[in-house]
User: Fold this.
Amino acid sequence: MPWPPHTRTTKEWQPRHRQGSKADRTLDRIEVSIPPAIKDLVFSPSNEAGQAQEAAIIAVARLEAGFGEHLAPLADFLLRSESVASSKIESVDAGWHAFGRALAGGKASADAKSQLAAVHALIAMVDAAGRGPMSLDTFLDAHRLLTAPDFYTAKDSGALRDVQNWIGGSDYTPINALYVPPPPELVPELMDDLLVFANRTDMPIIAQAAIAHAQFESIHPFTDGNGRIGRALISAILRRRGLTRQITVPLASAMLADTTRYFSFLTGYRSGQADEFVQYLASAAVHAGEASAESAHALSELPGAWKHVAKPRANSADEALLARLLEVPILNADMATEITGTTDVSAYRALGRLTEAGILELISTSKRNQIWAATDVLAELDALSAAIRKRTLSS
Assistant:
C-alpha cells in the first residue's frame, strides 16, 4: 500500500504586523501542507527497505549488548554526542569545552546552555518512553526543558503553537517558504494521530521511528525546537519498543554529515516517499552503530592507558578519580572530593597531578568554579562524529 502524500490547501493570510518587502505586506493568501492521518496505516516496505531495517536492528542490538562494564559510561557518552549533534543541525554549536563548562555548572554561553537543554530534553523523552506509552505531555515536558534557557522561546515553551509557522523564505511571511506546515487549528488533532502511531507495537521498529519523525517535522507543532524534539522522538521510539535499553544511538551525527540530504528525504516523505526515508534512517543507524562500537572499544581502553601514564598509588585519590573518569569525564573540585572521599586539598592535588600528566585539562579558569575535562574522552567525541560523517558520506 503506497504511503499517502500530504495535501495542500489555500488559507487566508492576515499578518499581525505589516513588515518586510511589498510582497510581504500585500500577501493575503498562503498555501499550507496537510499531513495525512497515519495512526491506522500499514507500512509495506520494499525489499531494500526491509533489508536496511534488518541491518539497522543488528547494528543497534550489537552496540547495546556488546560492552559490559563500560555500557553505563558509554550510554552517557552517546547521549551527549546525539544531543550536541542534533543542536548543530540547528546551528547551535558551543564547542565541547563550552558545553563541558555548562555540564559542570560553570559559566556558559547561550549556545552551551541550549545544548545542555537538548540533553535534558532527550533524556526526558527517552525515559518517558521507557516507562510506557507516550502522551502529549511527553512532548510538552521535553519542550519546556529544551526552551528553558532562552527567554524569548521559553514564553512559548510546553505548548503547541497557536500561530502559523514556516520553514525558509521571508522572516515576516511564508512567501517563498521551503515548507509551510498545517495551520495551528489542525495541530492538536494531528498530534493525537501521531501519538497513536508512535505507541503502536505492530510496526517494524525502524520504520515506525523514521515515519514518526518525518510526520512530527511535517506537523511542526511548536514555534521553536521542532528539529531537536523530533529527532529525540526517534530515540524515544527505539526505547519504547525495547530495541535500546540504555544507549542512545547518535543518529543526528549521520544527519549532520549531510544536512541537505537529510532535509531532502524529509521533503520526499511529504510527497509519499516513506520507503526512501525509512531506508535513509536505517542506513544512518548502521553507520552510527558501527562507529559507536569503535568508540566504545577506544573508551574501554582508556582507563588502562591512564593508569600507565599516571602510575597512581594504590588507594590514592588519583586512583579513585581515574576509576570514575569514564563515567564522569567533566568535573569540578566538589565532584572530585565526593569521588575520592578525601579532603578538598587532597582532591585538588590529585586533579593537579592528573592535569600535569595530560589526562585532565582545565577548561574553566574561574577561581570560584574550576572545571576539568578528560581530554581523551573529548577527543573521542570528535572522533566519533568524524567517523560517522566519513561512513555517511562514503555510502
